[in-house]
Amino acid sequence: MSSRKTGSAVCALGALILFIAIVYANPGNWFDGTDTIPFAKIAAAFALVALGCSCLLYNRSLRIGGGIGLMLTALFALVGLSAAWSFWPSLTVDAFLDGLKYLAIFFLIVNVVDSRDRLARIVQTVAWVTLIPAIGAIVSHARGQYLVEGDRASWIGIFGNPNDLAYHMVVGIALTMAAREAAQTRTMRLVYLAMLIPMGLTILLTQSRGGMISAGVVVALWVARSLKHAPAVIGLVVSVGCILYLAPRDPWKARSETSVAFGEDVSAAGRVDAWRTGLNMLAERPLTGVGSGAFMVAWPTFAPGDVGPARTEHNTFIQMASELGIPGLALFLAAFIAGALGLSRATKVPQLKPYARGIQCGLAGFAVCSLSGGLACTWPLYLLLGVSAATSRLVEPQRQMVKPLRSPAPLSAVRAA
């Protein structure tokens, strides 16, 4: 590979890493007047231009990302087509144009992450940048800033919703554990272990029940695949759980008390109302849905008579089914399952195992968070699917690198021949 071709690919990787950092840092929300500057789009555009130069000038091959890429391409094509039957076509067009950025980053990751070292850098980047909203939320909570419902922690930009903030922490925890297992030195393993503390504390401060459960699922899955260390980790988790439960201000109890009105869990009731409405949309329009982004617009038409005001879907799978029908849900599930199961071979390659396990746990965390939130259009999902497709493609090259030399045939066999 020529130095220019390598340099172009390095520029694309650097811009991709910068893009991820900008998404998590939200610099446009730091100062007044900077919210109109598209920092993330500039970084993403630079990465795409660098990748394009590498392809046009140095014959670099473009990859679609295997089955995951095909399914996602078909899914977003369906999003665009749904404007033809949408309850609010302009909203659907906006959803389609917004969705293209997720698809573009997926393809960027698939084409840029073409070695184990680059895979490691992306995983490490997500782990480190997750600390930005974590620390931001902890500091803001201590200062009484950006609080939701009086005491739930949130932050700026895309982290203004406590549930979304907790969801990003869950994915960050999964990839931080992956980076820790892959670390070469004891010092870095301790550093990554320490990084889990602010992420876990942030989830507690958000009081997101779905986030807490998802984090527990991620840790449990990781422990289940690391049985050698299971007793110590389980002991640690149980100890922390007991401390939190016996603490003067139990977050589970506090969250439950603030969401109960007249003996009814208002938060849970609202979600059930959204699910019932979404299922009505699916029942009446099973092949088309109401159009991407048009869920709340179509609410009055399909909501049962005893539900409250219009809400978002509060469930990723109902979101896809109600807005795009069974075909949209099928494409989404196919891409997700391909991403999760496609890593099975990578978990058997020592050089890729930590990253493959971390990505799988991250996808599991997404699935659990999706049961109480509409997360189909969020950055962590497409970052995970992108590195999943890239990791699966690295299996054979990594096996070839460690393939043992064939031993000479025994002398007896030579004589017999």
Key attributes of the depicted protein:
globular, 3 domains, 417 residues, two-stranded antiparallel sheet, mainly alpha, 18 helices
Structure explained in plain terms:
- This protein is mostly helical.
- The chain folds into three domains: 1-62; 73-112 and 267-341, no CATH class; 116-258 and 353-383, no CATH class.
- Helices cover 70% and strands 1% of the residues.
- It contains 18 helices and two strands.
- A two-stranded antiparallel ribbon has the order 1-2.
- It is globular.
- The two termini are 44 Å apart.
- Mean pLDDT is 86; it is low at 243-248, 260-265 and 413-417.
Compact overview of the structure:
Helix content is 70%, strand content 1%. It has 18 helices and two strands. The chain is globular.
Annotate the secondary structure layout.
Blueprint lengths: L2 H23 L13 H20 L7 H16 L7 H24 L3 H14 L1 H13 L18 H21 L3 H21 L2 H16 L5 H17 L4 H8 L1 E2 L2 E2 H19 L10 H8 L13 H26 L11 H17 L9 H15 L1 H7 L9 H6 L1
Antiparallel strand pairs: 1-2
Q: Note the beta-strand portion.
A: under 5%
**Protein structure class:** mainly alpha
| Overall geometric form | globular
Q: How many β-strand stretches?
A: 2
**Uncertain residue ranges:** 243-248, 260-265, 413-417
How confident overall, as mean pLDDT?
86
Radius of gyration: 23 Å
Give the helix tally.
18
How would you spell out the order of helices and strands? HHHHHHHHHHHEEHHHHHHH
Tally of domains: 3
Distance between the termini: 44 Å
Strand order of the largest sheet: 1-2
Give a quick account of the main beta sheet: strands, pairing sense, barrel closure.
2 strands, antiparallel
Instruction: Report the oligomer.
Output: single chain
What is the share of helical residues?
A: 55-70%
